[in-house]
Protein 1
Amino acid sequence: MRYLTPRKTAEGLGSAHEGTQHHWAMTVSAVALAVLTPLFMIVVARAIGLSQDQLLAYFGRPFPAVITALFVVVGMIHFIKGTRIMIDDYFRGGARKAAIIISIIFGWAVIAAAVYALARMGLGAIVVV
Amino acid sequence: MADVNRGNRPLSPHLQVYRLPLAAITSIMTRITGHALVAGIVLIVWWLVAAVTSPGAFACADWVVRSWLGFIILTGSMWALWYHLLAGLRHLFYDAGYGLEIEQAKKSSQALIAGSVVLAVLTLIVFFAF
């Protein structure tokens, strides 16, 4: 019987073989969002109060559209991975599985809704012109 | 063993009665603000989807966005965003091994609270001034 832990199984990715990627993904998205968040605040602040036609034209422009798309996509992926940490802390068994599934579906639903709206606004502007 | 008093022994501090240090409060607030931001992003995405749905749907969403409820949600989200952003930056320093001493964590917690409030007030001032 060997009493020493084989070094290769303890080195690098850890026993679950995936926690490192999760942590790294949170780090990368956090740095991206640190830049995107102030830009997104400016985009939203300038949009509040516009009429419907003005709003469609506003989000048809590249800067508001790209910043909003990036913020929602990166932000919701950050949200999905962030809630996963919370779920792993507070839930067990079937409730944990259900919470993880709901969190992922909700996150991608928000992304899909935002991308759909932005696509309609962007493409609409081209068709009208 | 028969006469052991089982009902009146000192208990270890429970989360609800234990006074959390400032660093613990600012840490759990990071998680709370991160999850609470769901309200703000759902309101904004609903508003955007309503804008490409119909004038009636947009009028409804836009009314909520401009109402006092929308103001509370968006202003709260704006502060939560600043707080979560600053707390996230602090976390990057924690990850790199800096600021983990108790005194440093206390100071960064105070800076976190003050910084998020100052940035939120500045954002409101800029928003209403321009």
Protein 2
Amino acid sequence: MFRFLLSRLALIVPTFFGITVIAFLFPRLLKGDPVLLLSGERGVSPERYAMLNEQFGFDRPLIVQYFDYVWHLLGGDFGTSIATKSPVLHDFFALFPATVELSLFAVTFAVIIGIPAGIIAAVKRGSLFDQGAMGIALAGYSMPIFWWGLLLIVIFSTTLGWTPIDGRIGLRYFFDSVTGFMTIDALISGQRGAFSSAVSHLILPTIVLGTIPLAVIARQTRSAMLEVLSEDYIRTARAKGLPPRRVIGVHALRNALIPVVTTIGLQTGLLLAGAILTEHIFSWPGIGKWMLDSLSQRDYPAVQGGLILIALVVMVVNIIVDVLYGLINPAIRYRS
Amino acid sequence: MRKTVALFAATAFATLISGGALAQTLVYCSEGSPEGFDPGPFTAGTTFDATRPVYDRLVHFEPGTTSVVPGLGLAESWDVSDDGLTYTFHIKPGVKFHTTGYFTPTRDLNADDVIFSFTRQSDQSSPWYQYSPGISWEYYNAMSMPDLIASIERVDDLTVAFHLTRPEAPFIANMGMDFASIVSKEYADQLQAAGNMVQFNQMPIGTGPFEFVAYQQDATIRYARFDDYWGTPAGVENLIFSITVDASVRAQKLIAGECDIMPYPNPADIAMLAANPNIVLEQQEGLNVGFLAYNTQQAPFDNPQVRTALNMAINKPAILEAVYQGFGQAAINPIPPTMWSYNTNIQDWEYNPTAARAMLEAAGVTNLTMNVWAMPVSRPYNPNARRMAELIQADFAAVGVTVNIVSYEWGEYLARSQEVTRDGAVLLGWNGDNGDPDNFLAVLLGCDAVGGANRAQWCNAEFDALVQQAKTVADQDERAALYMQAQEIFHAEAPWAPIAHSVAVMPVRSNVQGYVMNPFAIHEFATVTVQ
Amino acid sequence: MTDATVPPAPTPPRARSPWPARRKAIGEFWFTFRQNRGAVIGLVVFALLILIAVFAPLIAPFGFDQIFYDHFRTPPAWQEGGVPQFLLGTDGIGRDVLSRLIYGARYSLLIGVVVVVLSLLGGVLLGLVAGYFGGKTDIVIMRVMDVILSFPSILLALVLVAILGPSLMNAMIAVAVVLQPHFARLARAAVRVEKSRDYVTSAQVAGASHLRQMFVTILPNIFAPLIVQATLSFSTAVLEAAALGFLGVGAQPPTPEWGAMLAADREFILTDWWLATFPGLAILITVFAVNLVGDGLRDALDPRLKRS
């Protein structure tokens, strides 16, 4: 196990350097100019331009800038955002909990509905439920989620008034952020109604963000179940007269879930890395929206830092998935 | 340290709300996150909206107008020397800074605070000049303050004299702008001693009607009424900015009562909002202009005949309807009609595609293909440049001119459109800073601005001389005469097609009273009450 | 990060079959494919879309950029205020929505084809080289693929478009770059399995060149998984390009690309429902149809290939 983990970690090092190269080169490849962006419609004089350029350090040789950049990264310095003038790391950690909270809700939603739907569809293969559920799943998989989100807002928030329109909690609630998770902080605060307000704000974003993972998980569960159900030992178990509930619930499910767990993990990683479209539509103050805003404002340091941090999140989640996979399925350790 | 401060503030705030005072809360659905809470280094109106509650300036504009009246701001009065080179401000006595969980002032506002508020932006040896990495003083520089202010003198505890290098008529108006907000030197000193200067931009202290409570990044800003305010106390106890980037979403929240007031509605949503019995629309003609700037140094647009012909091909009523949804008026001159010195004698170019085509042919222009640049962002002076460009594309096609629409990301757009060798005509616009015509005519059309904010790359000696002269004259009537003459030249030369002056609309819930719109598109809430 | 997710089971090596045998294989494939009702429906819809795209100028009632100054935002024909000549209404500057949707089909299909071709060529080439030569070449290529896969695809595409500039072509390039590692991994894994098989070894012994071995001997045997992946990529490409258009960095006006149409008239979402509804529906139908076909292909070509 330890060696397995080590070999996984060893793979990270070159990838990480690849990522720093991309992040470093990004602003140098852009045509937009942050100095000019800063000055808006009124423009800037050449002298002042040169001064600001020097201040941002864009006048030194590229390779010097790169090593300087990596050196600072290794020291935990991800630069200072041009837009907010605060450290990029500070901005990232201020916004990351919102993304984590939303992602966890979305994945939970997808798992709670997706796995039972997949199992039933597999067991009742060819039934109306199977066809209907898989049709819906494929439609969910084909959904342009930016449109889906707008549609749900117009129907449920504007027309019916059932759900709040945006934000993370009602404005009447105000308490300190302890964990950064609005639902947990609401409980800690003890203010009446705060928790349900936080949850109601999560409903639509959760559905929108959970749609594609839900479709993927349902389809994956179904096909994994089908495969397992056709295996010899299941047939033997059935032939021996074990009750079907037991065969499916215990023997088949345990084996079928192994690939599904991997899928869930990878989906979580992707969501954590930036629910860009969902956060954009619901003005959810998370890192996906932050990256989008930083890109459109040409906030180089924020984009660079964000790229690296997001890639790190994806890599860490993938390692956790690998390890989990290794734990539940010992065969894999020897294969790799 | 910061944690406990926030905790304290939160508890205080929670008590306020649980005391049944939610009706005393005004929720403003703002259109974006502030860049910070120090108005000095920033240029965005969104940031100034967030700093206005906290800070005052020496000079305040009369609410809803562009005129300055002594006594409204922190300066009780001011004197100007006969040569126009020295401005002496007399500061109000007994003005208090905010007392919050993170700062307790030991003294009232005095000359040191005023001087510090400006020298920190100009004195490169001051640690405050670079108190946060990458900080720069864009507005201070853009308003030419470094060249203009020779020195600032502390006459006594409550008197400050600004010595200028040249007479500058708009100087007083400039002192009413947000970069000239007065900050607390005592607070700055404390932070410097604590080695935590960055906090100056995160947790502000000022003399304004509201004190800062908390900021949840990209979500909400909370303020509480400052009870020891020197002027009329604010009308509500709590002020909350609920940051909502999308205009449709803001409208939905206003309808749902999740906010009380919102800026920049989608023109398309205005009719729907107007039909809502709980919502009142406040309107004000904006201090702005949206235009199409030709590159006057590029053939065939170096020919005024060609520019005039194209101006005659543009169907402005269609643009006003499709782009501004009726909330705008056709622009004739480069300055808006609400501004003094606006020349009412000038008639707009007649919309006449047939005559325009004939003029183009007479100028020897046939089979012309040109670029029209469409801004990628929505601005008050041009809510939808892409749509405007598509309409202009169709208009020009009708006179035999083929248009390619080009667009770049906003920063790149601003940069590339400044280039003298730029290919094509650019859609852009301007929002006034201080209500002075100089702020439009010199900034946007002066010879100095070629290769910069003068997107037409237009340098007309006669026009430039008039505008330069007007700047040094003190008498407003005399200045107005010069500016009117300059507008005549503008019309004859047509370096732009002026498109529209937009009307600013603020939808407000009907239980909100006393909101006064500000012509500079800054949103202020001190006078507002909620029933 | 890891190849554990997609264990692309390579098809068993078919000996290079004589024509009648191939025809039989195709017949078998078609038989299996026809069993899948969804796939057939998807195929029919997709064929219709192709016809619409090809004959857009004949079908569309108006030009996609034709402005009617008296008809800004006219509702669909069946609704109050609608006009029969504009069946699905008009947009913010008085252009017929139906005509724009019809022309828009051209762009969506174009995006799908261009992106799939670019990513397929790039990915397969890299994957073949990596898998065939192994060693350092393999490591370098696959680490680069890892780097690309470490970012969420839409984020990387946004970054690439930021660098290249907003346009439809650049959006397609960006999406292709983001999608090609999937092809590369597939091709590499398949090559590594095929390489050890007898027919490759014998070709090697017979003195076939590297190129010949890669393209003539090995490539035809990994067609099946590549075709399935290509179909999946087609739908992903349409979705991602539409998302880029929606975010304003894809197709530029007056191009009637569906995502860009949605973005351009998003401000009317509260007042004029048809402007945001129809383009979204068009994207959904197209992607759904392609995915139905993809499922059918997967089942017919290789039941063991799984979608991840």
